[in-house]
Amino acid sequence: MKAILITKDEEYRAELTDVDEAQLPDGDVTVAVDYSTLNYKDSLAITGSSPVVRNFPMVPGIDLAGTVEESSHADFKPGDQVVLNGWGVGEVHWGGLAGKARLKGDWLIPLPGAFSPKQAMAIGTAGYTAMLCVLGLERNGVTPDQGEILVTGAAGGVGSVAISILAKLGYDVIASTGRPEQADYLKSLGASGTIDRAELAEKGRPLGKERWAGAVDTVGSHTLANACATTKYGGTVAACGLAGGFDLPATVMPFILRGVTLDGIDSVYRPKADRLEAWQRLASDLDLQHIEAIMHEIGLSDAIATAGEQMAGKVRGRVVVDVNR
């Protein structure tokens, strides 16, 4: 089978190569992969920009959608269509950027009937994470009538899907981006306005003017600190990314003086019940007309070059990878 394979000996490299299926790792379900994706984490792994990969050699790809070929797991049988997001796949266990994957059945969920495999990967971990963020806002009582919702890193995968979901649910969404040429795209997804990410990217005051009823942050660092400092009393900031850094140069002021909630969103090891809820909500709350605008498709042979472009901030929305071309 064809696969992207990352190796590390004298040097770190990622190559498109032929891999014997006998090399697939242990698991109780073998999946013929139809589509995978190129997430920010995958691009970190492929380019070696961050120590994402823990074991070598490694097939990256934290997402996949495909059809079960073999199974000794009670929940799945040959012919079932399945989706995988996270669980350390592409980091410690071979992932989806290959023709086949062997996995633990406990990591899989059935492909929701509302989506084709390609559409599911247009959503992928980014969209599933965006839905978890929205559920976090709802869980903490953030409603559309309370005011604007900030989405940072808005032109990326998580940001794009979050805007679409929030807008469909009736929220007034403001998109933060460093790419002003994407303003029309963001507004087409439902954003009512945009702001330059520079407004949030530098060190700010411990408390700023109250503006946001809530926020979805994919950036971290000063951006997250400033989002918290400008969130209204009782609001919630759902934090799920670190594109701008993993530090948090903030104070406790927003939390103890305004009752702001910082809601950490993990998507990798989320329990299965939460995954099923998120995908069920995606089926009802994501505007399917936006999926084509959010995604573009590449072949497996394009994945390495596209990873470099994604790390350079040149990729918009979601990248779906047809692993069979």
Number of helices: 10
Please tell me how large the radius of gyration is: 19 Å
Q: Superfamily at the CATH H level of the largest domain?
A: Medium-chain alcohol dehydrogenases, catalytic domain
Return residue spans where pLDDT drops below 50 for at least 5 consecutive residues.
none
The CATH architecture of the largest domain can be named as Alpha-Beta Complex
Largest sheet: 7 strands, mixed
3D shape: globular
The number of distinct β-strands equals: 15
Structural commentary:
With 325 residues, this protein is an alpha/beta fold. It has 2 domains: 2-111 and 290-322, Quinone Oxidoreductase, Chain A, domain 1, CATH 3.90.180.10; 125-264, NAD(P)-binding Rossmann-like Domain (Rossmann fold, 3-Layer(aba) Sandwich), CATH 3.40.50.720. The chain is 29% helix and 27% strand. The strands form 3 sheets. Strands 3, 4, 5, 6, 7, 14 and 15 form a 7-stranded mixed beta sheet that branches. The relative contact order is 0.16. The model has no long low-confidence stretch (mean pLDDT 96).
List keywords for this structure.
325 residues, alpha/beta, Quinone Oxidoreductase, Chain A, domain 1, Rossmann fold, six-stranded parallel sheet, 10 helices, globular
Itemize the secondary structure elements and their pairings.
Blueprint lengths: L1 E7 L3 E7 L10 E9 L2 H8 L15 E9 L9 E5 L14 E4 L4 E3 L6 H23 L8 E4 L5 H12 L3 E6 L5 H7 L3 E4 L1 H4 L10 E6 L3 H9 L1 E9 L13 H5 L3 E4 L7 H14 L5 H4 E5 L3 H9 L6 E5 L3
Helix pairs in contact: 1-10, 2-3, 2-8
